[in-house]
């Protein structure tokens, strides 16, 4: 079952302040690391778990991009404003407020003595209307997936959504004016440092819809070339083609069945095409990619 929704930026506090696109659905549910109805969502906000600000000295964490200690935060919204924005989003999606979901005060229930989620884990994904079919009653859409990047705007870096779609087009969202790029234009913007992944100390970072802060320390940041590899993998998966992980696993199976100079060279090419942050998924949970690295690089970590 598909339910229409929109996303609103907010932070979820769990040791770090994690930037999240809160998915708000037409049935009134909000995905804040758990599907919550209106009362449960408000309880998370009042408890400080979902918030609109990172305190000075706190750590901003962005999945897949990095972690930064921030200061001089200038945040634009209160918790009450966040609740009002969620209510407005639900009303826009569902003007009559019909069939709103009621979690009954809890997101879990007991099944044979085990606590399990009532609603499971949603698979939220961005969609883009195929404009050549806009006049259709229900125009087809391209499905996508999101990464986070920084877009340089003057003296600031804007923390943006890089939404990659199955037709290969890219949207830069969470910006005052969203933009659509093809892959060639995306590569050009990376080459001229307009799109980056690093925010060194002293950088002013703006998050559209939340406010801005200054980085006092960069703790970890992805490499932009690795994020571009991830973008390519997204297109492959959405197009039902093997991504770099699947291709590397196939090369590993071939090497194990028939070790040779040729199969090792093919394994090396396929392994180095996998984004660094995804290489841990190539093997078993306990060993990750260690067996492949041992073959390719010996004892090198």
Write a compact overview of the structure shown.
By secondary structure, the chain is α+β, with helices and mostly antiparallel strands. The protein has 7 helices and 17 strands. The longest helix is centred in the first third of the chain and has 15 residues, at 79-93.
Which secondary structure elements does this structure contain, and how are they paired or packed?
Layout: E1 5-14, E2 16-25, E3 30-31, E4 35-36, H1 38-46, E5 50-51, E6 59-62, E7 66-75, H2 79-93, E8 108-111, E9 114-117, E10 127-129, E11 141-153, E12 156-165, E13 170-173, E14 179-181, H3 183-191, E15 195-196, E16 204-207, E17 211-221, H4 224-238, H5 244-257, H6 261-272, H7 290-297
Parallel strand pairs: 2-6, 12-16
Antiparallel strand pairs: 1-2, 1-5, 2-3, 3-4, 6-7, 7-17, 8-9, 10-11, 11-12, 11-15, 12-13, 13-14, 16-17
Helix pairs in contact: 5-6
Walk me through the structure.
The protein has 7 helices and 17 strands. It is an alpha+beta fold and 301 residues long. The protein has 2 domains: 189 residues, no CATH class; 56 residues, no CATH class. The strands form 2 sheets. The protein has a 15-stranded mixed beta sheet that branches. A two-stranded antiparallel sheet has the order 8-9. Strand 6 and strand 7 form a beta hairpin.
């Amino acid at each position: 079952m598909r339910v229409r929704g929109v996303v609103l930026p907010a932070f979820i506090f769990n040791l770090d302040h994690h930037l999240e696109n809160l998915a708000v659905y037409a049935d009134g549910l909000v995905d804040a690391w758990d599907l919550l109805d209106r009362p449960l969502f408000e309880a998370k906000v009042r408890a400080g778990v979902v918030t609109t600000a990172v305190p000075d000295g706190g750590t901003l964490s962005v999945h897949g991009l990095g972690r930064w200690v921030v200061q001089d935060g200038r945040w634009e919204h209160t918790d009450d404003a966040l609740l009002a924005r969620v209510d407005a989003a639900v009303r826009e999606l569902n003007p009559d407020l019909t069939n709103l979901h009621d979690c009954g005060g809890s997101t879990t229930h007991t099944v044979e003595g085990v606590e399990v989620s009532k609603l499971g884990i949603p698979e939220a994904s961005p969609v883009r209307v195929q404009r050549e079919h806009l006049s259709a009653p229900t125009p087809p859409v391209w499905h996508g997936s999101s990464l986070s990047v920084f877009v340089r705007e003057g003296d600031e870096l804007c923390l943006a959504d890089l939404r990659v779609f199955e037709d290969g087009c890219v949207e830069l969202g969470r910006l005052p004016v969203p933009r659509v790029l093809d892959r060639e234009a995306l590569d050009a913007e990376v080459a001229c440092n307009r799109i980056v992944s690093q925010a060194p100390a002293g950088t002013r970072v703006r998050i559209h819809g939340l406010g801005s802060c200054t980085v006092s320390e960069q703790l970890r940041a992805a490499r932009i070339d690795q994020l571009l590899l991830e973008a390519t993998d997204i297109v492959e998966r959405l197009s039902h083609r093997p991504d770099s992980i699947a291709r590397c696993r196939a090369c590993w199976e071939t090497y194990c069945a028939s070790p040779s100079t040729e199969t090792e060279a093919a394994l090396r090419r396929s392994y180095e095409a996998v984004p660094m942050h995804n290489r841990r998924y190539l093997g078993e949970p306990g060993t990750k990619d260690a067996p492949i690295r041992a073959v390719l690089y010996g004892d090198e970590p």
